[in-house]
């Protein structure tokens, strides 16, 4: 949405709606150019409201007629301004009949009702419903919906909406209709419709209570062979939620629909989930192991919203993490349980921690920093962030860490008992957890209200005579925009102690036995915890399983980190020790690269990597993660003044040193982790492919003819997309003679597979030699379009966010390119544009010459004229905070 003067909305200003809606009847006569929407709303005044009159939201609508209790209203009876239709004089109970016109084919924002590939789809979260019809479009207005869809039967043979299908049939003039009824109250953001030419895979699924539910996955013709994994993931999700949380599917059917033009990953509309094709379509020919994992997680996430988001929803958009943070935690637990092994769970946890470090911690330290429950926003679409989602999930995980798995389940049960079919706040969830377990969680509220990443500084002292080990933990949190000072958090810190033999020491903490791992509750600015019965000087393993989203500062020596990297029973901390060792060396090598010094890597570190690589007792997926170096962006976050070219040179040099020194070992692991036979995305097979392809990547960092032939051979013979992409990336990264030919062959084979073409663009955008000129050339390719978010992300976002050395070119060409694309995207799709705008919000941390050019690019966007609220908020905060 564009406004002349963007308005800041504050959580403290929340007021209940003046009227609630009991029932909604919607009728759609669907036409791409001219869709007629008729609605009948039964509304009652809200005794809890302090306002008067009826307020309905509406954007880009043509009002055809408005009737209240059977009487036509004319100008003077109502007012439309600032996107709100106001009826000042209304009785306590009213029936409103509204008819509007809209043009879905002209809607490039992909919000509201729009057309994609000739088909109708909707996306109403967060405020898309107001571009469909006038309505109190806020999450605390919940109503029961009945929907009638009418459209040309030949062009749109499939008509879908929320809930249960109650009637369908043919009309005159080649049209047909379908009537849908949702038996549960929902806010307007959960409304959905689809009118399209689609085919479906369907199954009847027996629920735990004995009912049969119809499950459907709808896709465009030609994609039905790519739906099996999504269907299986849906069935697994339903069964898991029944068993883990006692939550059952509450409808007669559950539908997933895949669309190629979609701003998000997916949307949890009640009973009719609309998905980006990226998170539905998969078979071995076109999808990688990462794609399969993403499908399982996103299908689970959207299904789990049926209870955590739909049956219980948000009072207002400031409470977004109430549903998103909780549901991310649920999909994380689901994916871990689907693997079913301790090592598999550990690998998923490591991947979650890596996401936090790469994306959420920088957000906490940047101009867009905000609490898990924000206090204000200009555009709510800008707050679908890693803070709300991933950090929000960490906050939920901390409840389980503090209360235990059974205690967490008790809290969930009480939450649904209290709040089913209500719109509530984050505090209501916290209260359910506290009350169900008899715990005081008042201080825990600060995780919702305070922004920033807490820093926990640890120090220790060992008394050999007393057999006592004292661990002192002190907490602080850096200032963030609008929050200069922070109060102490309630932080669960899981701790173990390792002896010289690498084994865990049984713990007694402050007089209580705690087994191998103790969860210490840090609530004061500084606390000391006493471990007794410690017969030898231990090495502390602090923050096991990443028990809180914090930065840990403990003065580990190299010897201690090497000990933890070799022996820690907690896989997350074992991985973390290796990351710390690597980061120390990457920072030193970056400093050397920046000053023209020698780039050298010590044998001690390489030997530690060797031991992990060849340790067959370790899961291949764990070894892959343990050997993966911190990304260039993570290195940048550790520097006061960022030099992207020096970081890139240091990391590439480090990879080359490891790859050349451990060539024999990497080659052996490459051969040992082959997965012959038919492709399977199971965790064991995926782990082997991951380690094999990491070995190939390290070998390709120090390539010769033999290594290039190895990569070329894998590319030529690959029986699945995982191996094909890994080989192609290796050929490009090593600038092998066959790289250009492989790229051409790859595109020629998959030019009709949109998701694979996205991969083709993405691989080139992130290539070391991909400068701005190369990206501009790719934008002229017939397959490229800015209008499709997936395609824009694959090329432009991957260059700006995934190729820092080239994006931050000293001549400023990357920044000029960024400014052009932000403005171009803003005219089409502000949500996508604002995501790209975030690429520059950390500009103040770069070297002065880069800073000046980045600021200039930001100012060019800011002065470009009438920006959307989405982009204006991001750019303004980047320049002022």
UniProtKB/TrEMBL annotation:
Where the record annotates domain Peptidase M1 alanyl aminopeptidase C-terminal, the positions are 558-879
The enzyme's first-digit EC class, named in words, is hydrolase
Recorded E.C. number(s)? 3.4.11.2
Domain Peptidase M1 membrane alanine aminopeptidase, by residue range, is 229-447
> What organism is recorded for this protein?
Massilia polaris
- Report domain Aminopeptidase N-like N-terminal positions: 91-190
Catalysed reaction(s) here are: Release of an N-terminal amino acid, Xaa-|-Yaa- from a peptide, amide or arylamide. Xaa is preferably Ala, but may be most amino acids including Pro (slow action). When a terminal hydrophobic residue is followed by a prolyl residue, the two may be released as an intact Xaa-Pro dipeptide
Q: Which NCBIfam families match?
A: pepN_proteo (TIGR02414)
Cofactor(s), names only, from the UniProt record: Zn(2+)
Protein name per UniProt: Aminopeptidase N
Q: Which family does it belong to?
A: Belongs to the peptidase M1 family.
According to the entry, every stretch annotated as the Peptidase M1 alanyl aminopeptidase Ig-like fold domain falls at 452-554
State the UniProt keywords alphabetically: Aminopeptidase, Hydrolase, Metal-binding, Metalloprotease, Protease, Zinc
- An example molecular function term from Gene Ontology annotations: zinc ion binding
Q: Name the InterPro entries on file.
A: Aminopeptidase_N-like_N, Aminopeptidase_N-like_N_sf, PepN_Ig-like_sf, Peptidase_M1, Peptidase_M1_dom, Peptidase_M1_pepN, Peptidase_M1_pepN_C, Peptidase_M1_pepN_C_sf
Taxonomic superkingdom? Bacteria
Q: Name one GO biological process term.
A: proteolysis
This molecule's function is given as:
Aminopeptidase N is involved in the degradation of intracellular peptides generated by protein breakdown during normal growth as well as in response to nutrient starvation.
